[in-house]
Design brief:
The complex is a heterodimer of chains A (232) and B (554). Chain A is mainly alpha-helical and 232 residues long. Helix content of chain A is 47%, strand content 2%. Chain A folds into two domains: 53 residues, no CATH class; 169 residues, no CATH class. Chain A has a two-stranded antiparallel sheet with strand order 1-2. In chain A, helix 3 packs antiparallel against helix 4, helix 4 runs antiparallel to helix 6 and helix 8 runs parallel beside helix 10. The N terminus of chain A is likely disordered. Chain B has three domains: 46 residues, no CATH class; 456 residues, no CATH class; 44 residues, no CATH class. Chain B is 29% helix and 18% strand. Chain B has 14 helices and 24 strands. In chain B, helix 6 runs antiparallel to helix 10, helix 10 packs across helix 11 and helix 11 packs parallel to helix 12. The radius of gyration of chain B is 26 Å and the shape is globular. The N and C termini of chain B lie far apart (69 Å). The N terminus of chain B is likely disordered. The chains are: A mainly alpha (232), B alpha/beta (554). Chains A and B meet through helix 1, helix 2, helix 6, helix 9 and helix 10 of A and helix 1, helix 2, helix 3, strand 8 and helix 6 of B.
């Protein structure tokens, strides 16, 4: 939206209510001892340097660290009771691959996803002297998001991963059921309460895929890649 | 998309409420009040992003605050006749063919008396360090508030603790793919905050792991066939992600990073190593050459350093209660292994990111003066040199800054060679390199009467140096005291801040520093209680206060 302050007069002229706004503005400005409403330009040729006008500050956005992320992925894409510290114990070879993928690309990436270790944590869980100081809390950044996008694309290239996660719905990879999309969303967004607008748009997008498995894969890929579910 | 002229009043006010952080609810009066009382902060902010051309910002922080009188603390810029504290020595004196004592001295370069290191080359066959002076400005005599390392590290770029930082503001005002980057040691001490929640990409790993840690995630590693399938449905996936982001409005905060990361995955940054590694090797060689002792390093390495070990006192201190027992201090430096951790990789990453326009906000940190030395009792010389006597101090600090000078000259050369096609100017013209520690150092016994040797935190006299294509010659501003006192005793000059006539006889503070940096970078000032002491002269920057001088301590 390309909105400018010069549009104010146009907006106000369309409604009598706008006059009240103009009067209100004028009154408030006078009340504030005639403070300027325009941004104060930086005086480039004086030592004054302009007056500061940034009194608000941003906040750091905290997101799930490697322990929480890997735990969520293991819950969604590996059989029950899988142990990320012992992927070889899994009987299915694709599960082993998925397990190793979660382990190598999430759990052991302390620099990327943060999450430090306690003294009792073992090397199998990616704990060693070098990552003890990376910090427990993770904040959003580009490398982390790139790593997560890459991870999701690899994860969902396995049919088996998709099948396991759909069992949590429960749903069948070869039978797309619209009414189960809400439950799939809740796997990533537990607080989600069915929203017809969101679901109808997702279904409409999924409609462009012929195979039922691809419809599920498409929605799962969007869910996995979507950044919101990792926000604390 | 709607034409903006047809926007409804409600849409406008809701938008305005959102822009000013007010309630999104329909409450026109409170919305107007909020809008007016916020003085159109956010609107102004948005307009500036479009209008301003923000310089690249490179902040080099020597965390631990090594002594600067060897390099960019100019204790006697006008060559006045004064007494120096011997702990502030930056050169050796000769006796019987050896370097056996320390002294403060200066040579004339670019109109100022500067430390003798500026008369040296970066290595035996290297470049004149003084080449840097032609595009340098130093602000010294900055009056600080307390002796804390982390606090003073933060206020170099964040004048209000917890508030916006300069690196964050540059990120806010630029649209490069990576909003801000921080590399090297002691990142915990670096304060970064952006108004628009622009994220900071950072790593504290060294060597090649620095690059792996930063850039490996951008290497796309999904199987080729599936990759092309994903690319084919990219728009649909993005649309779906935008829908999912509507689940909770707080999720919108992370969508920008997600989309930027997705774009970067399609660039060559994932193939970084072929580009980054040669740059890293180049800087590694520059550092190695600078740390090599050669007979051409006159005044530092052309004679044996040290009196007989049996006669030594704490002038040779290398640790608490321990003096170096090496006959010739030069032999404590081993060119094969002595280095400065993080230095080469930090500069390599800076060059890689800046020249490829990946970012305009870059911070690097190093935490040691020299690594892998053997001074008999000291294997790493820290930046925080409480117990380093001036005899080893002169050598190790000269080498430290010689290596920095070599890296700075190379980075600046690269920036000079690259031309911005839209402005026709070199990248260096639109870059500000900020070189600082937390504070300068003063003789320890000023604050600790029983500690007779070494230096402590000289927070009453900080300094910062800047390099940019917008400086046409060396400028040094900020007044310092001719002599400080330990109790009632005059102890000579170390750089304690003096009040400045051009500032209504007030001290120069970190607020002046922050607003001066903001002015030069072309971002809004950060604090209200100080003015910029830099002004424009055409396209260049010049000091708005008089050149640095020494002031009587009355």
């Amino acid at each position: 939206m390309n909105l400018r302050l010069s549009n104010l007069s146009h907006i106000f002229s369309r409604s009598p209510f706008g006059s009240w706004i103009v009067v209100g503005c004028a009154f408030l400005v006078l009340f504030q001892n005639c403070q300027k409403m325009e941004p104060i330009p930086i005086d480039e040729n004086s030592i004054q340097g302009g007056e500061p006008r940034l009194h608000e500050t941003g906040v750091t956005i905290k997101v799930a660290n490697r322990f929480l992320l890997s735990s969520i992925f293991a819950d969604l894409y590996l059989p029950d009771n899988s142990d990320l510290g012992n992927c070889n114990a899994l009987s299915n070879n694709t599960d082993k691959s998925t397990c190793n993928l979660i382990r190598s690309k999430i759990l052991l990436q302390a620099q990327l996803y943060k999450g430090n270790c306690s003294h009792s944590d073992s090397a199998e869980l990616g704990c060693n002297a070098s990552n003890a100081e990376v910090g427990a809390i993770s904040s959003i950044n580009l490398a982390r998001e790139a790593g997560r996008i890459n991870f999701c694309e690899r994860l969902l290239s396995f049919d088996r991963s998709l099948t396991v996660s759909l069992e949590r719905v429960p749903a069948n990879i070869n039978k797309f059921e619209q009414e189960k999309v809400s439950a799939l969303i809740q796997l990533y967004y537990p607080e989600y309460q069915s929203n017809p607008d969101i679901e109808s748009k997702l279904l409409s997008l999924a409609d462009s895929f012929e195979k039922d498995s691809d419809k599920w894969r498409f929605i799962s890929l969007a869910l996995c890649k979507s950044p919101g579910w990792q926000v604390n | 998309m709607k034409n903006h002229k047809s926007i409804s009043r409600r849409e406008f006010l809701n938008w305005f409420a959102a822009a000013t952080g007010a309630s999104v609810g329909w409450d026109p009066i409170s919305t107007i009040i909020s809008a007016v009382t916020s003085k159109y902060v956010s609107t102004a902010f948005a307009e500036e992003i479009v209008k301003q051309e923000v310089l690249r910002y490179v902040f080099i922080q020597n965390y631990g605050a090594p002594p600067r009188q060897h390099f960019d603390l100019f204790l006697n810029p006008n060559n006045e006749s004064i007494v120096f504290n011997q702990q502030m020595s930056n050169a050796y004196s000769v006796s019987s063919g050896k370097y056996t004592e320390g002294r403060y001295t200066a040579i004339l370069k670019n109109g100022y008396y500067v430390p003798p290191l500026w008369g040296q080359k970066t290595s035996a066959t290297g470049r004149d360090i003084s080449e840097l002076l032609g595009s340098m400005l130093t602000i010294q005599g900055i009056y600080g508030l307390n002796a804390s390392h982390p606090f003073n590290a933060a206020i170099q770029t964040q004048p209000i603790p917890g508030g916006l930082s300069i690196g964050g503001l540059v990120a806010d005002h630029t649209s490069n793919p990576i909003s801000a980057v921080a590399v090297g040691s002691s990142l915990a001490a670096y304060s970064y905050k952006s108004f628009k929640n622009k994220s900071l990409l950072q790593t504290s790993l060294g060597g090649v792991n620095q690059a792996h840690s930063l850039f490996e995630p951008f290497k796309r590693n999904v199987a080729g066939n599936f990759s092309s399938q994903i690319d084919a449905v990219e728009e649909q996936v993005d649309s779906a992600i935008h829908q999912l982001n509507l689940i909770n409005k707080k999720y919108s905060r992370v969508l920008v990073d997600h989309m930027s990361a997705k774009k970067l995955l399609k660039t060559a940054i994932g193939q970084y190593f072929d580009s980054w590694n040669p740059i890293y090797l180049k800087y590694t060689n520059l550092v190695k050459s600078a740390l090599s002792l050669d007979a051409n390093f006159k005044g530092y390495a052309d004679r044996p350093i040290g009196i007989p070990t049996a006669d030594r006192d704490n002038r040779y201190s290398v640790a608490t209660g321990k003096n170096s027992t090496i006959d010739d201090l030069r032999s404590g430096i081993n060119p094969a292994v002595t280095t400065i951790s993080f230095l080469a990789e930090n500069f390599a990453t800076a060059e890689f990111l800046l020249l490829n326009d990946y970012t305009r906000s870059f911070r690097m940190g190093t935490g040691s003066t020299l690594n892998n030395v053997d001074l008999a009792g000291r294997l790493t010389v820290p930046n925080d040199q409480h117990f380093i006597g001036y005899m080893p101090g002169i050598l190790v600090n000269a080498l430290h800054y010689r290596a920095y000078a070599a890296c700075l000259l190379e980075l600046i050369d690269q920036l000079k060679q690259k031309i911005d096609s839209t402005t026709g100017q070199s990248y260096f013209h639109d870059t500000l390199i900020h070189f600082a520690g937390e504070f300068n150092r003063m003789p320890s016994y000023i604050s600790h009467p029983n500690q007779l040797m070494g230096t402590s935190h000289g927070f009453r006299g900080s300094s910062a140096s800047f390099f940019s294509g917008r400086f046409q010659n060396l400028q040094i501003v900020g007044d310092t005291l001719k002599s400080d006192k330990a109790g009632t005793r005059d102890v000579g000059s170390w750089g304690h801040a003096a009040k400045i006539a051009d500032l209504n006889n007030e001290y120069l503070t970190h607020s002046h520093l922050a607003n001066s940096i903001a002015f030069m970078l072309n971002v809004p000032p950060l604090v209200t209680n100080a003015t910029s002491i830099i002004r424009k002269s055409g396209e260049n920057y010049v000091a708005a206060i008089s050149r640095s001088k020494l002031v009587d301590n009355t």
